[in-house]
Amino acid sequence: MWPFITAAAEKQAKEMLPDMLEESKPMWMTTLKMHKFELGNIPSTVEDVRVFPGTDPGAEDISLEFDFVWRGDQQIALLLNPTPKFLQSVPGLSTVVNKIFTWTVGVSDISLKGRLRTTLIPLLFQMPVIGAVQVAFVDPPKLDFDLRLPSDSHGSGLLDYVSNWADAFICDKVLSQYVLPDHYFSQVDGKSEDILTPEGVMAVWMIEAENVPKMDFFGSGQPFGKMWLRPRSVKHTPTKKGSNPKWEREEAHYAVPVHTRVHQVLTVALLDHDSNGDDEIGRGHFNLGNLTPGELTDLWVDIGVPKKTSSEKKGSERKRDKILGFFVGAKGKQQKDVEGCRAHIQVAHVGS
């Protein structure tokens, strides 16, 4: 079935990705386009298959869960134009620069691992027996990849910045659409509806943060927080000043329905406000399966960089990369920059 799966996925990706890339384009990129997208011929592997009855109280259903591992021979490439920030407001000159600095970034050695669930819902007492199919990752899958440039390119210093952006884009914008409770849904009988039944409501308050680094060379930091269970429903806190911001309880409150508490993960992110585009400092996570329903949980969440950069580089190479990043307005994150940074939150889950 793999040739049919890849053909369908490639067709869907080519329809969806152009708009998604344009919406998620960093401020320091003038152009960001899909240059090549082929998923290859090496199929995924499936292990540890388990079958069990579903838990939806409104329908008869059955689920299959299995470990999904994919290390394929994909051929994916992006076309991008990094533009120095001091030229972004000069249309004529920036166009000339774009023609000079046009990079084709290849994405290789992609690895995707996760626990996948296929649910047949509802089961019918008539043909075709299955009303619809839901497919989703049980937890956020683990993604790994490498980026490469042509041998004659001089933009290797920006690969870490592109990698940080690509990791966040793929996980937050693409894969998150297929992590429970979100899922792919396909009708079989032409009648069944895709209905999610919440288990309850989660309420979370961001109280404060400490040791928050500023992301710009000049000026003071202006940190603010973001919280989400699903990237399409995000709560932003007000912007504060300094490295130890505090928020009033009513201004940093987030409430959202919970559908699969044991699998859902709350993401807490800290950002530095910038008129040229907000910079993510880092993020942390809390599994809702650790909550006791009906009780308030008070905790500190450690904030780490979204994706680890190349710490093995020599000092001169790291310095060159920072200078190049500053030149185009890209902001990279090193692990030492967020050491000791954490956010204080309170979380409660109330059953339906």
General description of the model:
Helix content is 18%, strand content 38%. The protein contains 4 helices and 16 strands. Strands 1, 2, 3, 4, 5, 6, 7 and 8 form an 8-stranded antiparallel β-sheet that branches. A hairpin with a 6-residue loop joins strand 13 (265-272) and strand 14. The longest helix is centred in the N-terminal third of the chain and has 23 residues, at 2-24. The protein is flat and about 65 Å long. The model is unreliable at 308-320 (pLDDT under 50).
Average pLDDT confidence is: 84
Poorly predicted ranges (pLDDT <50, ≥5 residues)? 308-320
Topology as a string of helices (H) and strands (E)? HEEEEHEEEHEEEEEEEEHE
| Large-scale geometry | flat
Q: Which band does the percent of strand residues land in?
A: 35-45%
- Measured distance between first and last alpha carbons: 41 Å
- What would you call the structural class? alpha+beta
| Number of helical stretches of at least 4 residues | 4
The beta-strand count equals 16
Largest sheet: 8 strands, antiparallel
Question: How big is the Rg?
Answer: 22 Å
Helix content percent band: 10-25%
What labels describe this entry?
8-stranded antiparallel sheet, 4-stranded antiparallel sheet, 352 residues, alpha+beta
Summarize the structure.
By secondary structure, this protein is an alpha+beta fold. It has four helices and 16 strands. A hairpin with a 2-residue loop joins strand 10 and strand 11.
Helices and strands in order, then pairings?
Layout: H1 2-24, E1 29-38, E2 45-53, E3 62-71, E4 75-82, H2 91-100, E5 103-120, E6 132-137, E7 142-148, H3 159-174, E8 184-187, E9 200-210, E10 223-230, E11 233-236, E12 253-258, E13 265-272, E14 279-287, E15 296-302, H4 315-328, E16 342-351
Antiparallel strand pairs: 1-4, 2-3, 3-5, 4-5, 5-6, 5-7, 6-8, 9-12, 9-16, 10-11, 10-13, 13-14, 15-16
